[in-house]
Every structure is written in C-alpha cells, then in structure tokens.
Amino acid sequence: MRVREETRDPPPPDVAGPPADAVKTASGLTTKVLAASDSKDAKDRPTPADLVTVDYTGWTTDGKMFDSSIARGKPSTFPVNRVIPGFSEGLQLMLPGEKRRLWIPEALAYRGQEGKPKGMLVFDIELLSIPNRPPADVKAPPADAKHTASGLAYKVLKEGFGGRHPKSGGSVTVNYTGWTTDGKMFDSSVLHGGASSFPLDSVIPGWTEGLQLMVEGERTRFWIPEKLAYKGQSAPYGMLVFDVELLKLQ
User: Fold this and answer.
1) Catalytic residue among 110, 137, 204, 237
2) pTM, whole model, 2 decimals?
C-alpha cells in the first residue's frame, strides 16, 4: 500500500544494517529491543496459533518506507503464522507492550516475490495485544463484577464519555471478542476486518441488555449465562464471556 509522503516515518539510523548490540538468531533474523514490556513471563509471548495486534513500520535498507500501520492510522491484527517468516519469528520473541526492531534477510522475507520489496527488510514493531488470549477471570465473574436481575454479570474495563446509552431498538458499532469459559476464543470483530455494526434487537439477550448499560467509548467485560446467550440450542454452549468496546451509537 502506498503512503502519502508527508506521513512517512524517517528511517532509523541503523536501517542499512544491524548495530553491534543487536542479537542474531539461528535463522538469520537480527533483532533489538527498543522498549521493554512490563511482563517478564515467557508464556505471554505469541505462538504461531495466536492473533496479534501490532503497530509497525517497514523500510528497505536504503531508507524507503514501504508499509506502515502508523501511517494508515490503525493498528493491524493478523495470525502470527500468516506473515513472512522473519516477521513471524520476531513476533514470537516479543511480549505485549514491547517495541522491537527486526532486520529480516530476504530468505525470511518475500524471497524475490513479484511486486514485493527486495533484499533485507527492517521493521519497527510494537506488540499491542494478543486478542485471542482469554482474560484471567474468564471462568467466572470476579468479586468486583456487578450483576443484574437477569443474571448478567459485567465489569467496566475502560470508562466511556457522555451520558447516552443505546436503546433496545437502536443500532451500535462495536469492537468485541468472545470466549467460552475454558478460554477458547470463538468470535471476534478482528476476525471480520474491524468494527461490527448491528441493531440491538438482532443479537443474543445478554448483548441487548448489556450494551444498554454502556456509553460511547466504554469497554466492558460481560459474563453472559447460557439462558441469555444461545440457550443450549447451538454452539457455543454454556456461559460466554465478551469484551465489548462501544464505539458509536447510530
């Protein structure tokens, strides 16, 4: 994708080749941590089966930027195993919140594919999140969760703004991810290319009720009992857990 010249990030001073303090792996990938993560647990690193949300910029070694989520103004989400080998390997070294620079040799990049940048590529990557990973409280609502008379449990993760709540007959635009209580992600707006819009009377009862408690900009976690979800009539079964960000009322 072409990016307007005025939005181009300047290349790093070491774009032509990795510095002495960079670390080379057995495959030929070279990396350097630019900003460390708060996490120290290796289990927090992405696996090939994970989805990641990242901000990144890529340059050729002559300093030309050829791609950037930052220039587009929107982070990118994709499976770790669906990108070039060097990018995939580099991601698996990272922890959420970390920024890292990768020098990817052509053998781990596009390998001479027509229309793709040639030679070694340099990427700055910030790992923002691993959206398919379940929250720590996926099995049951924590003590500080609130409960409604219907049995819906919820907890506000990020405060919103304004005082407008969706109405049962209205429509909303949201980002969301849903898990079963054994931690398996079964659906997410990131799998569909971004935010989803729908009328509130067309979704499961727990969503219809829960979204009416929210305001724009708010992100909330819901624990929806089966009777307010798919009622045991179809998968996914049992209680469902959703993180929902209300982007807009329509």
Assistant:
1) 204
2) 0.80
